[in-house]
């Protein structure tokens, strides 16, 4: 066989025989993956702490001083330069960057640049003139950071890895100060410190595309290099923007036709501050006159934007037609022939940088667009609107992007959405309008923008509806029963559910009646994929039907929270508490006999409105119907390792009674017993309960 005409012995040795995977191999691979993920998470945590420390530092804590590396570290430093010159960006993993964070951040001896043929590397990518200038620059300066070296040789992968690792691209040398000037060294140091923090926040922390950040960093260091090389051609000795004197080589000549000169501090400050304002064209502009550094074909296309001459409705139709031309799902997208992507590591404009990241199918782009609107990312939203999106698409709360922008108080996005034809007359679940959201939250600027597009808006607010219900005879004559608190698991109990309790008669009748009317008006939410799979399983226990409501006017949730807080503080509690209820809530209707909820624990959620990224602490359940039999909520001692169908030890059982509020920590295991008297209707949400601040 080895001497046959079509097979050689050489080919047999080149293709090793694959042995089947054994259980030991799988176990070893699992341990290796677990260790790698653990190292990554540890590195992410350490980097996050280092970035937070640099942003919160005061004084001169993070000003880099010219300290050279120790002799024993030179080989390691040389390896970093070698990896960049060999285009080995994978060498700068999170673990490596976290371990060597101080070394990768500080200026290193510039002689390492010339050791790895910087002229050849720069010439191959940017031309002969740039290569010769880079070689001269490496001999003029004494120190250089790794991120500057990566920018000069065009290794954008290493720049991205260093940025993800929390390396600040901006640094200044103290010896560039002119001691004989009116400014004190302390004031200039303070200014440089604030600029470094601004650059760190904008280019490292904020949600800016890495390809755009790479272009900004590359442009900054390229201008710095040319300014050093051509220092003899400059006549200025002071920055016209801040009037601080510097050495000639420290003044940066802008790479544009204007050729204005400014100091390095003002250059970085201008690029960071003006980044959000550059909606179109090159993001790098002159700090003095605002002129862009380049004029590319992409910029010309943006200046000839077809959306500029259209009305809002025409813009909406054009964007919608582009959106409808996309595949509906990512599964359909994968079936299409793959197009070769342009491998461009950096982009000079927002639209160019975002074009490949906004999604190429309708489901992905819609999901990203909703998140961009909620986060207030105006450039990302503009990219979606230009490349195609349904500006009136609704989420499970029947909120359009305009509702979300009003709710989150993003006035620039409200204007942008209206300019692209978003309909301000659409109401979300509960008949909540965008104008009422802005009025009830006292967003004056958004109210003015919406009133320009709306002639009149007469839908009642939640507060007006509750006040009207209070005047109805059936509610006005209902006797008021004082609320009562019942402790289920004491606060000092050694259990994860310690502090669980329920309150009877905590809410007045007008709120309960309003919630009844609200529930009747809400549409049924489409079932999730998990619910669809459960329906196909004939043995699965029937679950609830969901109805979503967002109290974006903030009146209902705050009113319920105040009633809970006043009840708890009037009861015999050791410490006064504060209660805050999240505005997103859902109604669950168990309308089938035997419907139940398997044992589980709930997850905490982050408050999307209030600053501070506070997480919820307790699960909120309000029962809206009486159930004589079944439907109880059971608080469990622990979840059984044998699965949800095993027996669980019950610590407390809460019956279903109209107006009863059940509150327990998220981590407390619980289950919903089978419903026998139907329907069982509850309002489900999240709250934060914490000790009241004095």
UniProtKB/TrEMBL annotation:
Region feature Disordered, mapped onto this chain: 1-35
Example of a GO MF term: dioxygenase activity
Reported cofactor(s): L-ascorbate
Record bears the keyword Repeat: yes
Gene3D superfamilies cross-referenced by the UniProt entry: Ankyrin repeat-containing domain, q2cbj1_9rhob like domain
UniProt keyword Flavoprotein, yes or no: no
InterPro entries, per the entry: Ankyrin_rpt, Ankyrin_rpt-contain_sf, Pro_4_hyd_alph, Pro_4_hyd_alph_FE2OG_OXY
SMART domains: ANK, P4Hc
Keywords of this entry: ANK repeat, Dioxygenase, Oxidoreductase, Repeat
Composition-biased stretches (Polar residues): 1-11
ANK repeats: 397-429
PROSITE patterns assigned to the protein according to its UniProt record, in alphabetical order: ANK_REP_REGION, ANK_REPEAT
SUPFAM superfamilies per UniProt: Ankyrin repeat, RING/U-box
Positions of the Prolyl 4-hydroxylase alpha subunit domain: 498-688
PANTHER family in the record: ANKYRIN REPEAT AND PROTEIN KINASE DOMAIN-CONTAINING PROTEIN, ANKYRIN REPEAT-CONTAINING PROTEIN-RELATED
Protein name: Prolyl 4-hydroxylase alpha subunit domain-containing protein
């Amino acid at each position: 066989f080895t001497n046959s005409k079509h097979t050689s012995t050489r080919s047999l040795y080149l293709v090793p025989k694959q042995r089947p995977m054994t259980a030991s191999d799988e176990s070893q691979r699992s341990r290796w993956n677990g260790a790698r993920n653990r190292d990554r998470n540890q590195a992410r945590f350490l980097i996050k702490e280092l970035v937070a420390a640099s942003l919160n530092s005061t004084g001169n804590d993070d000003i880099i001083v010219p300290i050279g590396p120790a002799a024993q570290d030179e080989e390691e430093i040389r390896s970093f330069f070698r990896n960049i010159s060999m285009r080995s960006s994978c060498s700068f993993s999170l673990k490596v960057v976290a371990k060597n964070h101080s070394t990768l951040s500080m200026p290193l001896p510039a002689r390492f640049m010339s050791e790895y043929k910087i002229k050849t590397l720069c010439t191959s990518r940017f031309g002969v003139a740039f290569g010769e200038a880079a070689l001269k620059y490496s001999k003029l300066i004494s120190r250089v950071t790794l991120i500057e070296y990566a920018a000069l040789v065009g290794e954008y992968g290493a720049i991205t890895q260093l940025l993800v690792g929390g390396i600040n691209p901006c640094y200044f040398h103290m010896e560039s100060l002119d001691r004989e000037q009116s400014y004190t060294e302390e004031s200039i140091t303070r200014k440089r410190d604030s600029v470094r923090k601004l650059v760190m926040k904008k280019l490292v922390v904020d949600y800016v595309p890495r390809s755009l950040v790479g272009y900004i960093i590359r442009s900054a260091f390229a201008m710095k290099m040319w300014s050093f090389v051509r220092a003899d051609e400059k006549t200025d000795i002071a920055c016209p923007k801040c009037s601080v004197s510097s050495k000639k080589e420290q003044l940066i000549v802008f790479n544009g036709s204007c050729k204005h000169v400014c100091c390095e501090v003002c250059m970085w400050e201008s690029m960071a501050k003006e980044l959000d304002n550059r909606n179109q064209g090159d993001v790098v502009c002159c700090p003095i006159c605002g002129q862009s550094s380049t004029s590319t074909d992409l910029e010309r296309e943006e200046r000839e934007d077809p959306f500029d001459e259209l009305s809002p409705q025409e813009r909406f139709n054009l964007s919608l037609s582009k959106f409808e031309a996309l595949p509906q799902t990512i599964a359909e997208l994968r079936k299409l022939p793959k197009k070769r992507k342009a491998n461009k590591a950096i982009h000079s404009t927002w639209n160019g940088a975002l074009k490949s990241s906004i999604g190429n199918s309708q489901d992905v782009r819609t999901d990203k667009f909703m998140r961009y609107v909620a986060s207030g990312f105006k450039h990302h939203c503009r990219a979606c609107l230009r490349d195609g999106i349904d500006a009136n698409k609704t989420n499970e709360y029947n909120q359009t992007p305009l509702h979300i922008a009003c709710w989150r108080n993003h006035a620039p996005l409200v204007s942008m959405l209206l300019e692209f034809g978003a309909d301000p007359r659409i109401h979300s679940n509960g008949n909540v309008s965008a104008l009422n959201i802005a009025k009830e939250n006292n967003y004056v600027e958004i109210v003015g923008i919406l009133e320009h597009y709306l002639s009149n808006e007469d839908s009642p607010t939640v507060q007006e509806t509750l006040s009207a219900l209070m005047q109805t005879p059936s509610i006005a004559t209902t006797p008021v029963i004082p609320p009562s608190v019942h402790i289920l698991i004491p606060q000092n109990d050694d259990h994860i559910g310690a502090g669980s309790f329920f309150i009877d008669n905590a809410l007045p009748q007008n709120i309960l009646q309003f919630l009844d009317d609200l529930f009747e008006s809400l549409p049924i939410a489409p079932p999730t994929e998990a619910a669809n799979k459960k329906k196909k399983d004939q043995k699965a226990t029937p679950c609830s039907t969901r109805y979503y409501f967002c109290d974006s006017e903030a009146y209902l949730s705050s009113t319920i929270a105040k009633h809970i807080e006043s009840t708890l503080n009037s009861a015999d509690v050791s410490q006064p508490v504060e209660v805050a209820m999240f505005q997103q809530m859902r109604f669950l209707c168990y309308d089938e006999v035997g419907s139940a909820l398997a044992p589980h624990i709930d997850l905490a959620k982050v408050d999307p409105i209030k600053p501070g990224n506070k997480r919820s602490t307790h699960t909120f359940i309000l029962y809206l119907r009486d159930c004589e039999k079944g439907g109880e909520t059971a608080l469990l001692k622990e979840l059984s390792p044998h699965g949800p169908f095993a027996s669980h030890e019950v610590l407390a059982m809460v019956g279903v009674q109209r107006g009863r509020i059940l509150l327990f920590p998220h981590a407390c295991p619980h289950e919903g017993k089978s419903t026998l008297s139907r329907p069982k209707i509850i309002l489900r949400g999240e709250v934060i309960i914490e000790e009241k601040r004095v």
